[in-house]
């Protein structure tokens, strides 16, 4: 083998680094050439899905080189794996003979042309048609599917997670090269006409938000995917009434709900909307009342009321019919019937004394006793309290004796 001196555009510092590298790996170093026609040149390679590329003598050398009796070492972040390039960048490599002799050296330009990969974490279940404006461009809806962020209280609609073959995120399987992925998303909404109620893609489809996700790595490689969020018109017959102390849904088979306001007068201003308007609960856990529903529905007003005075005019019953008009079919599609009662429906209350029995003194001549049968008289005589939530009317009392003497007769 003839020793020779190589000339190159590489700096002396690069040459020194390669010599040191070879010395560290091989323990000794001599520089020679197999022939004057064997040389190294700059190689351009594209990294694979693992952000690697393995060089071989035939790839990096030119001329009359003995490729079978030589090997390559790359001076990158992990020179221990010798001929394997581990990250994008411009690196120095050396071509060595099997005995450790440096034959020549050159540059390798490793490029990452692989776009990020992504994992979709969202579902396509439909949302309520009245929630379009809330979801559109709302970052609070982005996050792990179904989770509710404690900071904003909004249930998430999902997200897309991007990873890169040369990335450094914890979710990336190859975090060694420090290439971050920038994730962005944007919304575009499309509203559909009434023909969408017969849509085969999504029945009763009202609108769709196309949420476009993109992941761009540090070398400009881009991956995109589109999340479709559908919004549908509900079946209004599935709406229900708020069940509370005043409203009992389905209490009477003639009515969808019966609402009772225990008041002392027929004051209709006490009627609350949520006691006679049905609602549904959306994906985010919020109640949406029927008169707030958009999507080409409307509640016919004024409501159809039939009123009946009760309790001598101090109360009232209202038979209310709420009609739902669907503009897509051009007719009333559902009637809700609610009975509203306002009046004094609570009986007076009696509070008995803590200590019984009660003793009354009789008169000195006829062995009889008497008391005033008024509220005050009952309180003073027996310690009985009579009260009412409204104005107390007449108080009637009845005395029944048992096992006592009345006018000298044992009864």
Question: What's a concise summary of this model?
Answer:
With 411 residues, this protein is mainly beta.
Provide the descriptors you would attach to this structure in a database record:
411 residues, mainly beta, four-stranded mixed β-sheet, elongated, disordered N terminus
Helices, strands, pairings?
Elements (H helix, E strand, L loop, with lengths): L11 H15 L12 E2 L2 E4 L6 E2 L2 H4 E2 L7 E6 L8 E2 L3 E9 L4 E10 L5 E5 L5 E2 L3 H4 L23 E5 L18 E10 L13 E12 L5 E11 L14 E3 L7 E6 L16 E3 L5 E3 L7 E3 L4 E7 L4 E12 L4 E13 L5 E3 L23 H8 L2 E3 L17 E2 L2 E2 L1
Parallel strand pairs: 2-8, 10-14, 16-22
Antiparallel strand pairs: 1-4, 3-6, 5-7, 7-8, 9-11, 12-13, 13-14, 15-16, 17-18, 19-21, 20-21, 21-22, 23-24, 25-26
Helix content: under 10%
Q: Please indicate the percent range of residues in DSSP E strands (runs of 2 or more).
A: 25-35%
Q: How many beta strands in the DSSP annotation?
A: 26
Structural class: mainly beta
What are the secondary-structure elements, in order, as H or E? HEEEHEEEEEEEHEEEEEEEEEEEEEHEEE
- Spans of at least 5 consecutive residues whose pLDDT stays below 50 are 1-36
What's the story with the biggest beta sheet?
6 strands, mixed
Bulk shape = elongated
Put simply, the count of helices is 4
* Amino- and carboxy-terminal Cα gap: 145 Å
């Amino acid at each position: 083998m003839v020793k020779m001196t190589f000339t190159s555009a590489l700096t002396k510092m690069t040459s020194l680094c390669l010599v040191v590298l070879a010395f560290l790996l091989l323990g000794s170093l001599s520089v020679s050439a197999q022939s004057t026609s064997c040389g190294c040149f700059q190689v351009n390679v594209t990294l694979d899905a693992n952000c690697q590329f393995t060089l071989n003598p035939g790839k990096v050398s030119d001329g009359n080189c003995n490729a079978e009796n030589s090997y390559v070492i790359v001076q990158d972040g992990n020179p221990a794996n010798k001929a394997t390039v581990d990250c994008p960048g411009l690196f120095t490599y050396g071509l060595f003979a099997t005995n450790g002799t440096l034959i020549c050296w050159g540059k390798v330009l490793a490029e990452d042309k692989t776009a990020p990969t992504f994992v979709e974490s969202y579902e396509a279940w439909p949302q309520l048609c009245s929630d379009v404006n809330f979801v559109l461009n709302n970052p609070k809806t982005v996050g792990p599917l179904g989770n509710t962020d404690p900071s904003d209280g909004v249930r998430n609609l999902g997200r897309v997670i991007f990873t890169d073959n040369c990335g450094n995120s914890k979710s990336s399987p190859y975090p060694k090269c420090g290439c971050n992925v920038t994730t962005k998303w944007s919304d575009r909404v499309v509203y559909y006409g009434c023909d969408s109620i017969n849509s085969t893609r999504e029945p009763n489809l009202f609108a769709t938000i196309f949420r476009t996700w993109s992941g761009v790595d540090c070398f400009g490689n881009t991956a995109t995917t589109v999340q479709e969020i559908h919004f549908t018109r509900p079946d209004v017959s599935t709406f229900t009434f708020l069940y509370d102390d005043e409203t009992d849904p389905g209490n009477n088979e003639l009515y969808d709900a019966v609402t009772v306001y225990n008041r002392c007068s027929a004051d209709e201003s006490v009627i609350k909307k949520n006691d006679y308007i049905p609602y549904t609960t959306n994906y985010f856990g919020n109640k949406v009342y029927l008169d707030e529903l958009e999507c080409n529905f409307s509640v016919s007003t004024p409501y159809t009321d039939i009123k009946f005075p009760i309790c001598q005019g101090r109360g009232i019953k209202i038979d209310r019919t709420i009609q739902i008009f669907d503009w897509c079919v051009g007719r009333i599609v559902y009637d809700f019937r609610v009975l509203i009662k306002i009046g004094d429906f609570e009986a007076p209350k009696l509070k008995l004394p803590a200590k019984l029995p009660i003793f009354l003194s009789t008169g000195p001549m006829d062995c009889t006793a008497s008391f005033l049968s008024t509220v005050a008289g009952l309180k003073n005589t027996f310690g009985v309290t009579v009260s009412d939530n409204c104005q107390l009317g007449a108080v009637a009392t009845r005395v029944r004796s048992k096992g006592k003497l009345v006018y000298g007769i044992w009864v």
